[in-house]
């Protein structure tokens, strides 16, 4: 349920109503929008009468039920106000969200050694990316496949961050590694295979770094939003959803089916920012550029693209990785698409 306050409601009145809702056994969350303040209510609201709440104050404009099973992440919970995730990087604060330029995240599937990660980071930076994404702990289908270098790879990510100023995104697989990952990462990735690892979701929800939640390969949209709800319910509102392809019936020509139609659907259901990963989404470098452009046309807030200095020798996901030259070429092409929807960094700078 949400309480929409009239514009100009005194702060003390919002506080008074929030306290009263706590007395009713509910958890109020204040959401300050551009024009209005909304009090989101979580708890046993089924039996409550919206009219009875409205009678509490002449400053209450409306009391509305959130009909979806996901509450905090639903678009209704913020009365249609999109949320944004602000990420501090050495190069400055980057915002990911509907009202901001499209953020570019790129890097190798796994951090293999110092030379490759620094070289990739420099090329990502030069091409205009804001984040370096590289895996230290890798979720691999086979226990015999390269599992990532773990802690030593975190040090290499820290070195790449220092060398380029890019923000770092890396995956957590085991809650026991969370603290050391959070020391290096600006955003913590929860991968597709852990999307419904509820104890891990609670742990990332109880820490402060923003979380990138990838869609499980067989997750419905509701499964995914309920997983995000776990993170918000645990106290962390900074969640970005990443579409990375789902399993359908063809595995011969594509690794996954990139569900681009999920972008407008998510837009209607949630206020959370959206990222698209066409690399895992297709599994093949040749298909990445067209899907990246299509994701921009469909309204994504960010892109994640795998880039490796020598894809043929990559220890994981080589076939879907672009070379730095290909990535450079792609970002030049993406700029045209980004500008056409008025969401490319240079445009934002020029206009501000
Ligand atoms: C990755 O980002 O490298 C990765 C393993 O992705 P996903 O969890 O989407 O498979
Ligand atoms: Mn990968």
Give an account of the 3D structure.
One of its GO terms (molecular function) is 3-deoxy-7-phosphoheptulonate synthase activity. It holds the Pfam family DAHP_synth_1. It is an enzyme of class 2 (transferase). Its EC number is 2.5.1.54. It comes from Candidatus Synechococcus calcipolaris G9. The structure is a single chain. The chain is an alpha/beta fold. It has two domains: 2-65, Phospho-2-dehydro-3-deoxyheptonate aldolase, domain 1 (Alpha-Beta Plaits); 85-340, TIM Barrel (Alpha-Beta Barrel). It is 34% helix and 19% strand. The chain has twelve helices and 14 strands. It has helices at 11-23, 50-54, 114-126, 151-164, 178-184, 198-205, 221-233, 262-269, 278-282, 288-298, 324-340, 345-351, and strands at residues 2-5, 27-32, 37-42, 60-64, 84-89, 92-97, 103-107, 131-133, 167-171, 187-190, 211-214, 239-243, 274-276, 302-306. It has an eight-stranded parallel beta barrel, surrounded by seven helices. Strands 2-3-1-4 form a four-stranded antiparallel sheet. Helix 3 links the parallel strand 7 and strand 8. Helix 3 (114-126) packs parallel to helix 4 (151-164), helix 3 (114-126) runs parallel beside helix 11 and helix 10 runs parallel beside helix 11 (324-340). The chain is elongated, with a radius of gyration of 21 Å. The two termini are 37 Å apart. Bound molecules: phosphoenolpyruvate (PEP) and manganese (II) ion. Manganese (II) ion (MN) binds at residues 109, 280, 306, 316-317.
């Amino acid at each position: 349920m949400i309480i929409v306050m009239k514009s100009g409601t005194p702060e003390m009145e919002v506080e008074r109503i929030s306290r009263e809702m706590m007395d009713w056994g509910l958890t109020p969350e204040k959401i300050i929008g551009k024009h209005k303040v909304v009090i989101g209510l979580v708890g046993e609201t089924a039996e409550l009468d919206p009219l009875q709440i409205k009678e509490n104050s002449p400053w209450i404009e409306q009391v509305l039920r959130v009909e979806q099973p996901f509450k905090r992440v639903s678009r209704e919970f913020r009365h249609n106000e999109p949320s944004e995730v602000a990420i501090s990087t050495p190069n400055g604060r980057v915002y990911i969200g509907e009202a901001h330029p499209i953020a570019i995240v790129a890097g190798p599937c796994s951090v293999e050694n110092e030379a490759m990660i620094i070289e990739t980071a420099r090329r990502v930076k030069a091409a205009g990316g804001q984040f370096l994404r590289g895996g230290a702990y890798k979720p691999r289908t086979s226990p015999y496949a390269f599992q990532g270098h773990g802690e030593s790879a975190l040090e290499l990510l820290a070195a790449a961050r220092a060398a380029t100023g890019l923000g770092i995104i890396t995956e957590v697989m085991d809650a026991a590694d969370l603290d050391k990952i959070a020391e290096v990462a600006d955003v913590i990735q929860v991968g597709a295979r852990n999307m419904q690892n509820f104890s891990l979701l609670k742990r990332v929800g109880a820490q402060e770094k923003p979380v990138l939640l990838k869609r499980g390969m067989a997750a419905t949209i509701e499964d995914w939003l309920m997983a995000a709800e776990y993170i918000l319910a645990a106290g962390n509102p900074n969640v970005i959803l990443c579409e990375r392809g789902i399993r359908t019936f063809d595995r011969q020509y594509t690794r996954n089916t990139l569900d681009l139609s999920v972008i407008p659907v998510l837009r209607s259901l949630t206020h959370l920012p959206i990222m698209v990963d066409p690399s895992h989404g297709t599994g093949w470098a040749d298909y990445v550029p067209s899907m990246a452009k299509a994701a921009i046309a469909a309204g994504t807030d960010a892109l994640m693209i795998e880039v490796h200095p020598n894809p043929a020798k990559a220890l994981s996901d080589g076939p879907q990785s672009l070379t730095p030259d290909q990535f450079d070429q792609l970002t030049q092409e993406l700029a045209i698409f980004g500008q056409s929807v008025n969401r490319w960094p240079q445009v934002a700078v020029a206009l501000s």
